[in-house]
Each structure stands twice: as structure tokens, then as C-alpha cells.
Specification:
By secondary structure, the chain is of the alpha+beta class. It contains four helices and six strands, in the order αββαββββαα. The N and C termini lie close together (about 10 Å).
Amino acid sequence: MAENWVDERDKAILETIYFCENCNIVLEPGDKEVERHKKELPHHKMRKVFILRCGNCGNIVTDSHAQYSPERNQFWCKNCLFSTSFRQEFYATRQE
């Protein structure tokens, strides 16, 4: 595996956001509401969400709609993984 595998994986992560499931809102990392939620509303369910680019088709998806392959060092969207041929390619070990 390449020495810069972390850098290659991080290229696929376009943005990180927060989602409060109780308020049903999306928050930017630098937003004051994030700190307010952490301090004043600890009972709210906050999730960190990654916005990713699929390594196969290039679509933009969230991490809950993608899967990471350590062998390929890529995130693939679930649409690509539903295709039988792509799924076999995703899970196949890579020969370099």
C-alpha cells in the first residue's frame, strides 16, 4: 500500500458537518450552535457526518450512504455497491 494512504483517503472527504437529530438541523463545524448544543443541550443526539466523493462513480454522498474499502483505499457509494459487477470489483483483493 502506498505510504500516503491517509492523504489519499482524506482527499475523498470533502467536508465534515454536524447533524442534530432532535432539532433536525445541519450545523457547520465553526457554528456557535455546535458549542451551544454541546454545553446546554447534551441530551441532544449530535452526529458528525462526512461528505464524501465515491471513488467509483464520483457522486457526492454522506458517510452513511458509503462504504470504505481498506484494500482500495476508497469510499464507494451504496448505488455502486448494489451493482453486482461493481460489488465483486469492490470486494476483490487488489493486485499491484
